[in-house]
Amino acid sequence: MTPAWLSRGTARQRRAPRLVVMTSVEEERPRALLAGASRRWVRMLPWAVAFVLCVALMPTTIVVLTADYGLNGGLASGLAVAQAAPLLLAVVRPLHAWYVVFAADVAGALALLTVDFQERLLWPFPPMELVGYVGLCLALGLRERRRTLVLVWLATAAANVGLVFVPPHGTGAKDLLLTILGGVALLLGGALRERYEVQRRLVEQETISEAERGRRTLLEERARIARELHDVVAHHMSVITVQADTAEYRLAALPPDVRQEFTSIAATARESLGEMRRLLGVLRNEEAHGELVPQPGLAQIGQLVEATARTGAPVDFTPCAASGGVEVPEAVGLSAYRIVQEALANVVRHAPGARTQVSLSASDPAGDGGGARLAVLVVNEPPPEPPAGPLEVGGTGHGLVGMRERVRLVGGTLDVGPLPDGGFRVAAHLPLTEEDIT
Predict the structure, then answer these.
(1) What is the pLDDT of residues 344-394, one digit of tens each?
(2) What are phi and psi of 151, to 5 degrees?
(3) Last residue of some domain: 232, 253, 268?
(4) Is this prediction's pTM over 0.90?
(5) Do 131 and 205 reside in the same domain of the chain?
């Protein structure tokens, strides 16, 4: 079975596509211009410019159109609002704002054909309209793609050239100012946007490279751990297996019970060596399918108890009679096996020779299988004689921590602690239904 610290990494990788989808949905939402800037004043700059242009151009347009061009006040006010107000929308949706402003500018040019104004005044687009339209083109360049910018410029040029054919006072180079200035603004904005895109992609590549370096470092560390385990633990387990297998040939006149003891030691060592090799395979290759190897469960607890009894510790085992035909999930069976294994190992280390009771029981209070739980109980009495010293020194002290983690992962409860008479008790209650397993 894949260790918990490796399975968490796999779970994060499986969740990655969902995060990518969520990110892409957020990117589809309209964002203000320069919203990705790191400095706050840069993010607020488009709003400030749009507000200033709107507040300055709207009254100016009304005054110029009525006083200088002689346009009707109501019509001038309507054109001023249509040409200036959408500039605020341009901060978020510049293309939508362009539709309104472009139509209002063309309508304003046609409206000026109905009045008599001085030849020195600009036509078809007065200065206020030029300023607002150039600012709008700059916003378009910062947001839209090249194809859209080209279409916007062609539409601007077509409208400008079309109006030149019906001038009120003749033609001149100044009649094409909107086309020229709009094209320059679109080109400038597009260049700035593409430069920003190049920098953003460069940052993304650097981030990906950093992630790959971190992943490579992790794989190298896992490979190093695998080498250390192989050189130290696997080597010694192999030596134990060979010595136990050859004991009956090296030592003359071994009693039958001693020969059986060596055979049991060799079998246990080979089993442990097999589990160690599977773990090494997972560490060396993150795509290894060690989790598909059959894992021990309730059926193997009896063998575990027998192996412990052969060490000289009296162990009584009460197997589980499943209640109501409730099946034991694989994760629960493995957790129960590991809890009993660790508890018996602690008895051998810290209370050698103590009588131990191991019992498994399934209960279903509701009788419908919905609340069925497996109770795992390991209780040992005080050792007959206080041990002169621990059988193992330098222990990690992670046994109880591992028990609690296994119980928590399946959604169960664990109760451990010393007894008044000097013994020790380990009690775990594990859910037997898939809905209750977390």
Answers:
(1) 888 888 888 889 999 998 876 655 555 788 999 999 998 887 665 554 544
(2) -65, -40
(3) 268
(4) no
(5) yes
